Amino acid sequence: MATDTGLHLCIDRVIPYEMKPDAAALAIEANARNKPKIPALLGGVSLHPAKMALFTGKLWPKGKVLRVRFMDGSPTQRQRVVGHAKSWSTYAKIGFDFSGTGGAEIRVSFNADRDSWSAIGTDCLHADYFKPNEPTMNFGWLKDDTDDEEYRRVVVHEFGHALGCIHEHQNPKGGIRWNEARVYQVFSGPPNNWSQEDIYHNIIEKYSLDQLNATKFDRKSIMLYHFPPDLIVGGRATPNNTRLSAGDRSYIGKIYGKP
Questions:
Q1: Hey, which residues does 12 pair with through a beta bridge?
Q2: How far from 182 is each of 1, 188, 227, CA to CA, in Å?
Q3: C-alpha span between 1 and 182 (Å, rounded)
Q4: CB neighbours (10 Å) of residue 102?
Q5: CA geometry: angle at 228 spanning 223 and 229, to 5°?
Q6: Model pLDDT for residues 185-239, shown as the tens digit of each residue
Q7: Strand 65-70 to strand 137-138: parallel, antiparallel, or no bridges (unpaired)?
Q8: What DSSP assignment string belongs to 230-254?
Q9: Which helix or strand (DSSP H or E) is residue 24 part of?
Q10: Packing angle between helix 75-85 and helix 148-162, nearest 10 degrees?
């Protein structure tokens, strides 16, 4: 029987396959560095746009100032998000404009009936999937009185996604071996209540390409969740990371330039 473990994880908002070519075109338009470097073709391999899209990056150009608009939330919720999100800008040439004016690349909601999640990098530009009047980022369990460690953990994590970072436990260079039966049991229950497909996609599946996080597995990364030992073969839990690691700071400075 599934029990409430209190393990709050965000979900991936993945652009549907049929929308990937358009998302890739938008990514390249936003940042020419996202254009894929396709190796020499193997026999029988085609350059179908959807296949090309799998090789396309989702990073913003260096020096980009991303506009952020709050769609709801209390003044306290908004203020706390602003305070923690800016930590990324300390280590990279990337900024956030929270004035709410003009078209916003990042649109934030605090819908408590939904999970926490964010569009990955330039995916937020796909107006058919992330419609202009809908959020590109949601904080499903952050309240005015949420503990500050938890607030920082979630906000910095989701804004990492907005900058193009993937979940560290799905890093193709990661070394986690899952106790899959226990993983399915735990995440099918509260607070996540995920389907088997959701569990596979958000926990077990590895990214086939590392065009987003091109670093080795980082156990201290803010993009890595805490998983208890019973979910992992060998019984070594992952830490409860609530701050940017040295690896996070180095990586974000490498891809966006140091401030």
A1: 118
A2: 11, 10, 12
A3: 11
A4: 9
A5: 120
A6: 998 888 778 889 888 888 888 775 544 555 678 899 999 988 999 999 988 899 9
A7: unpaired
A8: GGBTT--PPP---S--HHHHHHHHH
A9: helix 20-30
A10: 60
